[in-house]
């Protein structure tokens, strides 16, 4: 299913996007050495409930997971990159943490992810990898104009990741989003320009470049959810939900301190 949102629905999507971003950036500030992943999950739940929104994760039970997910946020540490199931782990100095969150406000969902380093230790390889995913995300957003095609976005993302020297996994990537979290079209993190679905105003996409230092292969934890690099190398993941408009792509998942829609959580 591919949804094209009405102007009223797009307004609700903006609300969802701002909420997702505010929660993520609040949790980033709280992610200090010694913070437990289960506390991050509880804080995410409290902020979602306080906002009157709904979690897209807690009851999520796709075919590839051991569902339902049962938590409110994905917390992926170091060699974990996707669907990190929160568990009893205290963050250490230098950990590379990815937070991935999707919520729905008034029936419209938004999805975003951020990767960052915890504490004072900043391993250069990790800094470089996070930067590559952020630059790839920016390139994909720049390519997302009305009349462009999904392959144009994929090629833009893939060109940045490949130039940075990272293998690219094509199993998991971006996706359409709207009344549900995961919809068509699939947005691969590499591809050929001029191919695939043609973008129209009102389309929402979640773009999410992610990489692993030295492999494109994933393994699944015993929890049935957490995906890790097959070699144990570090990983990074950046994601925004965007709306295709008549003028280009509008990023919906910016914190309110950036988009001036009010104060972020503290």
TrEMBL record:
Name the UniProt record assigns to this protein: Methionine aminopeptidase
Function noted in UniProt: Removes the N-terminal methionine from nascent proteins. The N-terminal methionine is often cleaved when the second residue in the primary sequence is small and uncharged (Met-Ala-, Cys, Gly, Pro, Ser, Thr, or Val). Requires deformylation of the N(alpha)-formylated initiator methionine before it can be hydrolyzed.
GO molecular function, one term: metalloaminopeptidase activity
GO CC annotations, alphabetized: cytosol
UniProt remark on cofactor binding: Binds 2 divalent metal cations per subunit. Has a high-affinity and a low affinity metal-binding site. The true nature of the physiological cofactor is under debate. The enzyme is active with cobalt, zinc, manganese or divalent iron ions. Most likely, methionine aminopeptidases function as mononuclear Fe(2+)-metalloproteases under physiological conditions, and the catalytically relevant metal-binding site has been assigned to the histidine-containing high-affinity site.
GO biological process: proteolysis
Residues noted as binding a divalent metal cation 2 in the record, renumbered to the chain: 111, 175, 208, 239
Matching InterPro entries: Creatinase/aminopeptidase-like, Pept_M24, Pept_M24_MAP, Pept_M24A_MAP1
Peptidase M24 domain boundaries: 13-246
Binding site for substrate: 83, 182
């Amino acid at each position: 299913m591919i949804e094209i949102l009405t102007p009223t629905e797009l307004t609700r999507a903006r609300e969802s996007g701002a909420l997702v971003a505010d929660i993520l950036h609040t949790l980033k500030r709280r992610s200090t050495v010694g913070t437990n992943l289960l506390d991050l999950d509880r804080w995410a739940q409290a902020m979602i409930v306080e906002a009157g929104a709904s979690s897209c994760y807690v009851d999520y039970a796709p075919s590839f997971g051991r569902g339902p997910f049962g938590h409110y946020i994905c917390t992926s540490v170091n060699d974990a990159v996707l669907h990190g199931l929160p568990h009893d782990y205290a963050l250490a100095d230098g950990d590379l943490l990815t937070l991935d969150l999707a919520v729905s406000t008034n029936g419209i969902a938004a999805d975003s992810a951020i990767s960052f380093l915890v504490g004072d230790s900043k391993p250069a390889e990790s800094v470089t990898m996070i930067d590559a995913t952020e630059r790839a995300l920016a390139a994909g957003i720049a390519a997302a104009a009305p009349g462009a095609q999904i392959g144009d976005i994929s090629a833009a993302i893939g060109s940045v990741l490949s130039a940075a020297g990272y293998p690219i996994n094509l199993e998991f990537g971006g996706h359409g989003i709207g009344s549900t979290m995961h919809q068509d079209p699939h947005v691969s993190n590499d591809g050929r320009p001029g191919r695939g679905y043609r973008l129209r105003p009102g389309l929402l996409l979640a773009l999410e470049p992610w990489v692993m230092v030295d492999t494109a292969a994933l393994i699944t934890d015993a929890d049935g959810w957490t995906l890790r690099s097959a070699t144990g190398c570090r990983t990074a993941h950046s994601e925004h939900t965007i709306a295709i408009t008549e003028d280009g792509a509008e990023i919906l998942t910016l914190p309110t301190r950036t988009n001036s829609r009010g104060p972020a959580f503290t």
